[in-house]
Amino acid sequence: LDTQEKSLAAFRRAAPALPRRKLGQTDLELPVVSLGTGGGPDVNVIKFAIGQGVNFIHTSTSYRGGEAIKKVAQAIKGQRDKVILGLKITWAPDDDRAMDAALQTLGVDSVDIAFFNIHKAGQVRDPKYKRGAERWRKQGKFRYIGLTTHKETTACLTAGLDEGFYDALMPSYAMSMEAEFQPIFERAAKQNVGIVLM
After folding, report:
1. Rounded average pLDDT over 35-49
2. What is the pTM of this model?
3. Residue 138, CA distances (Å) to 93, 143, 161 in order
4. Helix (H) or strand (E) holding 146
5. pLDDT per residue over 96-119, tens digit each?
6. How far apart are alpha carbons 180 and 85 in whole angstroms?
7. Which of 58, 102, 115, 150 has its CA 20 to 30 A from that of 141?
8. Where are the alpha helices (DSSP H) in 95-168?
């Protein structure tokens, strides 16, 4: 082995295993640290993360102009069984063509969890999302459904909990939001809805 490979091997031996937690009422066990691909990480970075036990990766066709999802596809090829795959849905819940194209780009038939990307509480309550989720789940496009949001965050998450069909919530989050989010976290725990923080 050359020096770089020896250093990497030593790092892997010394690194503690990442703790994992069950995501709400799903059967998914996610590490306490996961990998979002909005920044469009290099394929080797994604592969390295997987090798270190980062088994949850979420991506979107909108990240880096569609390049990030292609990098994820390259990184998970041949090791899909090691990855819990999340897909952010940025298209309408009746757009089968967009859903199928995203799965095809990833090189998979389905993802573990799909997240509707919604930024207005009123839209979260639109029944078309529940109908779309139920239809796509029956078609085997994903196993679990989530909600992700970056705006009107607490209102959107509250609406998602009110709707009662989401398996997980994935909000953008900063430590300064802890007091604001604590009631949502507590309610999600009572409803057995998983939380993934971005």
Report:
1. 90
2. 0.90
3. 14, 9, 22
4. strand 142-149
5. 999 999 999 999 999 999 999 999
6. 29
7. 150
8. 96-106, 121-124, 127-138, 153-163
CB atoms inside a 10 Å sphere around CB 94 = 12
Mean of per-residue pLDDT scores for the chain: 92
For residues 92 and 104, give the distance between their C-alpha atoms in angstroms, rounded to a whole number.
18
Candidate from 7-21, 126-140, 143-157 with smallest mean pLDDT: 7-21
The rounded distance, in Å, linking the Cα atoms of 131 and 147 is: 14
pLDDT per position as a tens digit, 3-34:
666 665 665 565 567 888 999 999 999 998 88
Structure tokens at 21: 């937690």
Residue 35 buriedness (CB in 10 A; 0-12 / 13-18 / 19+): buried
Q: Give the tokens for residue 170.
A: 């994935």
Three-state secondary structure call for residue 192: coil
Phi, psi of 116 (to 5 degrees): -65, 135
The rounded distance, in Å, linking the Cα atoms of 78 and 196 is 26
Cα-flanking dihedrals φ and ψ of residue 20, to 5°? -125, 155
